[in-house]
Structure formats: structure tokens, C-alpha cells
Amino acid sequence: MNPADTFEHAMMATPEADQDRSTWPDWLKKAKTKDAVVEIKNGKEVIWMSGTWIDGYWKNGTWESGTWLEGSWEDGIWLDGIWETGYWWSGTWKNGTWKNGKWYYGYWENGYWELGSWLDGTWKNGTWLDGNWYKGTWRKGVWKGGTWHGGWWHAGTWWGGRWGNGDWSSGLWKGGTWRKGIWRNGTWRNGTWEDGLWETGTWKDGDWQAGTWYGGTWQNGIHKGGPWWGGTWLNGTWLNGVWKHGTWLDGIWKRGKGKPSTAR
What is the pLDDT along the chain (264 residues), one digit of tens a residue? Predict the structure, then answer.
């Protein structure tokens, strides 16, 4: 082993109280920390290896592991650890557990989001448990609950919660409430659709209250209102709406305009 590497390894394991803080940047010196193990690479790059961040302002660097209690994160790379609460302004989140706080912008690659507000950014993968999503791009992952206010959903699994508005490209919807927005493709397994525009996809079951249906396959469920422009109706109950075009195979027609000749 190179003697320099041995020295660096020893420094990385040095307790916070014994470390040479003179090498730390001013913003790090001002922060409240406990049991921090920090390496300053090339005389300027901060590498946080472990410990507890109590409060303060993080400017830039790499966070390898540890617990973040409170404060503001300006930029950098978060590799793993526990985030309790605070303000995330920009940067890349690789993995870990987000407990609460406000996310303003950045790239989320993987991990667990428990609660908080997402204002903008790109979500690549991971599990969302609860909170408010306002804007941004969702690539894939699992959504368990919370409120989606707007943004672009590309793929993944939606288990429950409330969709307020936005653009859904593809994925699996298992339950919850859709208020309005554009559904471009995917599979709807169950839930309540209040309003919006459905372009194509597969509707397996659920409660359709209003909105515009353009195409795809309806397997079962209750249709309460809105225009139907095309696609295939396999089964279910049509309570109301306007039938424009499409194929009706089976089910119950209660009332509405444009009743297909094959409906009973």
C-alpha cells in the first residue's frame, strides 16, 4: 500500500474532536455537527464520511453516510444516509431515506421518500410513501400515497393517493383518485377518475365520474358521464355519457346519448 494512502485512511477515521478543522471551509466550520468524520480532498473538496449533521448550511461536496437532522443543502452528491428534515436546493441524491423537508430541485436516483414537499426536479427511481409533489419529471418507481399536483409521469406503479393534475405517459395505476390531467397510456386497475382526458390504455375496473375518453380498452367498471370517442367496451355499467364511436361487446346501458346498437 502506498504510504500516502495509509495516511489518508488514518485521517478518515479520526474522531471529530481530534481533526484539524483548519482545513475545513468556513461554511463547514460554522455548522453544528457531532462525531463527524470529514476528509478534505485536494485541499478543497469536502467528503463527509460519517457522523451527525445537527444544523447549518451545506455548500458543496460528497456525503457518503450519516444522519442529517436539519439545515440547508445547496449542492453536491448524497450517496447514502438518513435525512430528517431541511431544505434541499440542488444536487444529486443517490440513495438513502428522506424523512421530511422541502426539495426544490435536483436529481433523485433511488431511495425512500417518507414525507415532505417536492417542488421540482427529476425522480429516476425509488419509493415514495407520502407528501406533496408539485412539479418535475418522474421516470419510474413506486408511489404509495400523497398528492401529485402537477408534472410528468413516465413509468412506474401508483398504489394510492390523489392525482391533482399533470401528464401521465405510461405505467400501472392500482388505486387512488385522479382529479384531472392527461392520461396517454398505461393500465388502470382500480380507483376513482373525476375528470380529465384519456387517450389510450387499458381500464380494468373503477369509478369513472366525468372526462373525455378517446381510445383503448374498457374491461369493467362504472361510467357516469363524459364523451366516449372510440375504443372497445368489454363489460361494465354505463350510467350516463355520450357515445360517439367504438365497439360495445357486453355490459349494462342505463342512459345517455348515442347508445350503440349492440348495447342492451
Answer: 444 443 344 344 566 666 778 889 999 999 999 999 999 998 889 999 999 999 999 999 999 999 999 999 999 999 999 999 999 999 999 999 999 999 999 999 999 999 999 999 999 999 999 999 999 999 999 999 999 999 999 999 999 999 999 999 999 999 999 999 999 999 999 999 999 999 999 999 999 999 999 999 999 999 999 999 999 999 999 999 999 999 999 999 999 999 999 998
Q: How far apart (Å, rounded) are the C-alpha atoms in residues 203 and 22? A: 63
d(C-alpha 260, C-alpha 194), whole Å: 24
The structure's pTM equals 0.91
Per-residue cell: 241: 355519457
- The phi and psi torsions of 85 (rounded to 5 degrees) equal -165, 165
> Could you state, in order of their start, the residue ranges of all structural domains in the chain?
1-124
- The residue type at 110: N
Cα-trace Rg, the chain: 25
- Residue 28: phi and psi, rounded to 5, are -75, -35
